[in-house]
Design goal:
four-stranded antiparallel β-sheet; 15% strand
Length: 766
């Protein structure tokens, strides 16, 4: 069940994107891809001398494929033998026969759980090939337990997996029994087993719409062979199944004929699913817009519950699975992926979720293809922590020559939050007691945990960066090195205004492109985790109105010089402009270089595609926001300079602006309207106290700036970074430096003969 009132618009958008853009692959291809991924993340790293941080190249991929071929054969052999052994499989086939003979969802859910746990129990001590068995979990029937995340979104998956000790009577000996979480009415017992999304590795959603005829269930008494562990579900093209196997051709669509691991091609959702989603979307829109609707005014809890249960039957169950996958992804900071199973009567499909998106599988018939169900459960049973979605990254770093052990607070959740960004930014927890020093293996865990407190000096950031972009630490390091070489005695105009990165890590084996490579999907857009510890900075909000122009000019100067030496930031926003307090004073700092790019010094704009329109919409240049589809405007230094002007407007107006949300063109239109009318309307009542003296100059600077950019676009004026800097200075004069230096950064010119060979960047534009 999903509580509609608890869903955010971002959650619904995520579900829509999942339905519209999810590729579908064969179940066997997905299972094999997971085996290959297990080799990359768990099997080889345990081997002596294996490089843990080795990127996945051709050699490693080939070793993973050989492992997969061998391991899948062993799993299939054991699964078929088990299914054909009447005595061994009786605790699986009996509950399945009972499950598909009832229309009662609670009874079917409990029967399915009994059957799944019988597989775990049977193979708990059985080694199959190389992978070790994970002994510590069982499947649990969840009939009344809402899992709630930090955004208070309530959802209730039908079946969850829990480690032993987290659920009632959860022991290896009881796995074959019906596991059921206690009802909320059992207050004390329910409180003892309060389960969160962080406790769950993967979950199941059940759709109960019919029972199976005796003839269909009779298949459980027949023998299975290798084809039942590899063939496509014969009923997958029926009207009852929302998957339609279509291959997206360049000129149209055609059928897919069951490709294998290397031949598997993604397919699209069928029209039935799209129509179901459109009807659901209209329902959401009607509910949210008509606030006078009597159902919203009703405060009767029983009536509300009935409405939710009725609406649940109208939802595409794929959307439920997508939302469950989202909750799992953002439940822990080191969560790399999540898996959700949809059992629609006897057809079973799988969804894999990570920060790149979702991959869904075609359906299998758990009765006709029982060995595939067994293989899937055996695979889950042999997952270690990394394949169960928890990377377990070591939380230690060397900071200024000292070993620091830190922890990421539980409230810093991973994955896609309501803002849509795959990012964690928080103060790490460090040891408060100096007596503990660097935590050793012998230290008492409880003492260490109790001694943790938010760091006053460090800031932790984890982002899932696109793998075709350089990592932020490397870009900052290159910027500092180039500043020292090209700017000489004036390098401080850049060095003092860059983030101080103390520690950084990349984890290429957690890249989202690996599973897509093995499943046969294009790897474009792959992301990998990158995290770092940075010296703590402060928001511009702490800057006094009398000092804000000086801080902004430090940022403008740094940005201008960085562009001249070949570093383009690409995402100037209010949140990315920070302040560093030192013994010698405050400095304006530009943070977050995760969208930055490296150019040849003196280059006018990045040549690599994908950097033309980066940024945060409320702060992007108007011309970038208004660009028409199909037209490309080269990214220039002026676009980021304009972003600084919008950041100053945000500071003055306390962020209370009309141009926060909307499409690119809508935001651009609202900003252009503001530029024209702000001077006529005067200073708004809701503005930052003490900024009244800035209003006239700010409005004039914005108006003259956009007038000049339009002239350049129309060919009436020549583009000039120096002229742009002088325009800003004419309306928002640059204050004198604390040391009285007179060097003007606009006089710096990068000459061709000064450019080092190693700084010349060649990037293909196609």
């Amino acid at each position: 069940m999903v509580d509609l009132a608890s869903l955010t618009s971002s959650d619904l958008t995520f579900a829509e994107e999942t339905l519209n853009h999810t590729p579908i692959v064969e179940s066997t291809a997905m299972i094999k891809a997971l085996l290959a991924l297990k080799y990359v993340r768990e099997v080889e790293p345990k081997e002596e001398g294996a490089p843990v941080d080795e990127p996945v190249g051709p050699d490693l991929s080939e070793r993973a494929r050989k492992f997969t071929a061998k391991q899948y054969g062993l799993l299939a052999t054991h699964a078929i033998e088990f299914c054909n052994d009447t005595q061994r499989s009786i605790d699986l086939k009996g509950p399945l026969r009972e499950a598909f003979s009832t229309i009662s969802k609670p009874l079917r859910r409990q029967c399915v759980v009994r059957g799944l746990n019988s597989i775990l129990s049977e193979f708990r001590e059985t080694p199959i090939g190389d992978p070790e068995t994970h002994h510590g979990f069982a499947f649990v029937s969840n009939g009344s337990h809402d899992l709630v995340d930090s955004w208070r979104t309530k959802m209730r998956p039908d079946i969850i997996d829990l480690d032993f000790g987290r659920g009632p009577k959860m022991t290896p000996e009881s796995m074959s029994l019906t596991q059921d979480l206690p009802d909320e009415s059992c207050r004390e017992e329910f409180k003892s087993y309060r389960i969160s999304w962080a406790d769950v590795t993967h979950c199941w959603k059940l759709e109960v719409s019919k029972t199976l005829e005796r003839g269909s269930l009779a298949r459980l008494d027949e023998r299975y062979n290798i084809e039942d562990a590899s063939s496509v579900f014969s009923e997958s093209k029926s009207h009852d199944n929302v998957f339609l196997f279509l291959k997206v051709w360049e000129g149209g669509r055609g059928p897919v004929n069951g490709p294998g691991l290397s031949e598997c091609s993604p397919v699209s959702r069928n029209e039935v699913l799209q129509q179901r989603w459109k009807g659901l979307k209209r329902r959401y829109e009607d509910t949210s817009e008509d606030e006078s609707n009597s159902s919203l005014e009703c405060h009767n809890s029983k009536k509300r519950k009935t409405e939710e249960e009725t609406l649940e039957s109208d939802h595409p169950f794929e959307m439920h699975c997508g939302l469950h996958g989202l909750q799992l992804l953002r439940s822990a900071w080191d969560r790399t992926h999540s898996i959700v199973i949809l059992l629609r009567d006897n057809p079973l499909s799988m969804q894999w979720h990570d920060c790149q998106g979702c991959i869904a599988t075609s359906s299998i018939d758990v009765v006709a293809q029982l060995p595939l169900l067994v293989i899937t459960v055996l695979l889950f049973q042999r997952f270690g922590a990394r394949m169960r979605g928890r990377a377990g990254w070591a939380s230690e770093a060397i900071v200024d020559g000292v070993k620091v052990n830190y922890s990421v607070p539980v409230y810093a959740l991973s994955g896609r939050g309501p803002s849509g960004r795959w990012l964690i930014a928080t103060a790490p927890l460090v040891q408060a007691s100096p007596s503990l020093g660097g935590a050793t293996d012998d230290a008492n865990a409880e003492d260490i945990q109790s001694a943790l407190k938010p760091s006053e000096d460090l800031f932790f950031k984890l982002s899932w960066r696109e793998d075709d972009r350089l990592d932020e630490a490397l870009i900052v390091r290159m910027a500092k090195e180039r500043a020292k070489y090209y700017l000489g005695e004036h390098a401080g105009d850049v060095l003092d205004h860059l983030p101080d990165i103390k520690h950084s890590e990349n984890h290429p084996r957690c890249s989202t492109g690996i599973v897509r490579e093995f499943v046969g999907i294009a790897e474009n857009g792959a992301r990998l985790p990158f995290f770092m510890l940075v010296q703590k900075l402060h928001s511009l909000d702490i800057v006094k109105p009398t000092d804000i122009v000086a801080r902004m000019w430090e940022i403008i100067r740094r940005h201008y010089l960085l562009w001249q030496i070949g570093v383009a930031h690409g995402d100037i926003s209010y949140q990315n402009l920070m302040v560093r307090n030192t013994d010698t004073g405050a400095y304006g700092v530009v943070n977050d270089f995760d969208l930055a790019t490296i150019m040849t010094p003196g280059q006018a704009s990045p040549t690599k595609q994908g950097f033309e329109r980066t940024g945060t919409k409320p702060f992007m240049a108007i011309l970038l926001l208004e660009v028409k589809p199909g037209r490309v405007i080269q990214r220039r230094c002026a676009h980021d300079l304009e972003s600084v002007i919008w950041c100053l407007a945000w500071y003055v107006l306390l962020g209370i602006v009309d141009w926060q949300k909307g499409t690119y063109r809508q935001v651009g239109s609202l900003k252009r309207k503001w530029v024209v009318h702000a001077g006529l309307e005067g200073l708004p009542k809701q503005c930052r106290m003490g900024t009244e003296h800035l209003w006239t100059s700010l409005v004039a600077a914005a108006f003259k700036w956009n007038q000049r950019q339009d002239d350049v676009l129309n060919g009436w004026s020549e583009y000039s970074d120096k002229t742009n800097m002088e325009l800003i200075d004419s309306w928002l004069p640059c204050s004198k430096r604390p040391g009285g230096e007179e060097w003007d950064c606009v006089d710096f010119e990068m000459k061709e003969e000064y450019i080092r060979k190693e700084d010349r960047v060649f990037v293909e534009t196609e």
